[in-house]
Specification:
Alpha-Beta Plaits, alpha+beta, single chain, Aminopeptidase, 7-stranded mixed β-sheet, Bact_exopeptidase_dim_dom, 2 domains, 33% helix
Length: 391
């Protein structure tokens, strides 16, 4: 029996699982019922699994009957703090929490792929590891799995991400940078408070902080090469207690985004230099703290070519399309730092069925018939990579 025929057996299962996880959405690091359900399904299949990384992450292993390589397939499992407004009969029953990024689809596609691979073990070469990873939205899950040995003995990694900007029937698996690196910065500005009518006797932290906001933009315009896409955003600015009192302190927080490892590594130095020097020019001091969230997500050329070929096999020759990189972060990058990998964007947009909203929107949903194709792509990438398919 071919893969298409095997997959057809699980078409209804795919939808049933996706809807269960959508209905039972849980936030990062607290996906307890989600993890329990995943493990129950694996037990039913007779597939071995173990805890790996954070408490709610699960790593399963399927060994083929033939020798070959080892590949890791990843699906993230956490939902977002978003109040759902889809009106779907299986809408999230968890108040203020919704699978608005499609991770419910990733869980169900990977479970369906596990069924397919398990049924086809006699034809499978090597080993497939399947990672249901917690906490992608807060960038703690992937790193924890890597540190706990998820990639031990692994030759490559692969992930499918449903994408609301790509029409159903199409995919994007371009090589090179696909998602941005993300860092967070916090800047504490210290001046000297005083009466609003006597500015000469005070040092205004609001004025210094405002200057820092503007000066930070010169990092992109004057410190980076014009061909380097990058973003510096100040998201919060808090200062002052009263309308006629000069603020003695201010706090700014923000993020930097880029696609280059070189820029990624230089950003903390640039932010600190601009903040401290600008504050000094206004008679203040500035303390800067940097938090690394995720490195850039860069698709390996060989893995991207394989994903493209597999998608053409499953969906059709015209399926692959070019989609520009997005500055949004993705912690699958931690897997791809260690072994060659690819994240494929599976089109799930279909206006006729109401799937016409982007990720993180309160009305985000997907065109469900595409999900069984995603499950087949997971399974076929694993089988073809482990067998050494050349493209």
């Amino acid at each position: 029996m071919g893969m298409k025929e095997v997959a057809e057996k699980y078409s209804d299962y795919q939808v049933e699982m996706r809807r269960w996880f959508h209905n039972n959405a849980e936030v990062s690091e607290k996906e307890y019922e989600t993890a329990k359900k995943i493990r129950e399904e694996l037990d039913k299949m007779g597939v071995e699994w173990e805890h790996c990384g954070l408490e709610t992450s699960t790593l399963a292993t399927i060994k083929g009957a033939k020798p070959g390589k080892t590949v890791l397939l990843r699906g993230d499992i956490d939902a977002l703090s978003v109040t759902e407004e889809t009106g779907l009969p299986f809408a999230s029953k968890t108040k203020g929490v919704m699978h608005a990024c499609g991770h419910d689809c990733h869980i169900s596609m990977l479970l369906t792929a596990a069924h397919i691979l398990n049924d086809m073990k006699d034809e499978l070469c090597g080993t497939v590891k399947l990672a249901w990873q917690s906490s992608e939205e807060v960038a703690t899950g992937a790193k924890a799995m890597v540190e706990d040995g998820a990639l031990d003995g692994v030759d490559a990694c692969f992930a499918v991400h449903v994408w609301g900007n790509v029409p159903a029937g199409h995919i994007s698996c371009d090589a090179g940078p696909r998602m941005g690196a993300a860092r967070m910065f916090e800047i504490d500005v210290q001046g000297n408070s005083g009466h609003g009518a006597q500015p000469d006797l005070a040092v205004d932290a609001i004025v210094a902080g405002s200057a820092i906001v503007g000066s930070l933009q010169t990092i992109v315009s004057r410190k980076l090469a014009p061909a380097e896409p990058a973003v510096v955003t100040v998201g919060t600015f808090n200062a002052g207690e009263r309308w006629n009192v000069i603020a003695g302190s201010a706090k700014l927080t923000g993020t930097t985004r880029c696609f280059s490892y070189d820029v990624f590594n230089k950003f903390p130095e640039y932010v600190e230099q601009v903040a401290t020097d600008t504050a000094k020019a206004y008679g203040c001091t500035a303390e800067v703290r940097d938090t690394l969230l995720v490195p850039p997500t860069v698709n390996d050329e060989g893995m991207s070519a394989l994903a493209r070929a597999v998608a053409q096999d499953i969906i059709g020759e015209e399926a692959p399309i070019h989609v520009p990189p997005t500055a949004g972060g993705e912690d699958f990058a931690y897997f791809m730092e260690k072994v060659p990998g690819c994240v494929l964007l599976l089109g799930v947009a279909d206006e006729a069925s109401g799937a016409c909203y982007v990720q993180h929107h309160s009305k985000f949903t997907v065109y469900e018939p595409e999900l069984i194709r995603g499950a087949q792509i997971y399974a076929k990438v694993a089988m073809d990579f482990n067998a050494g398919r050349e493209v």
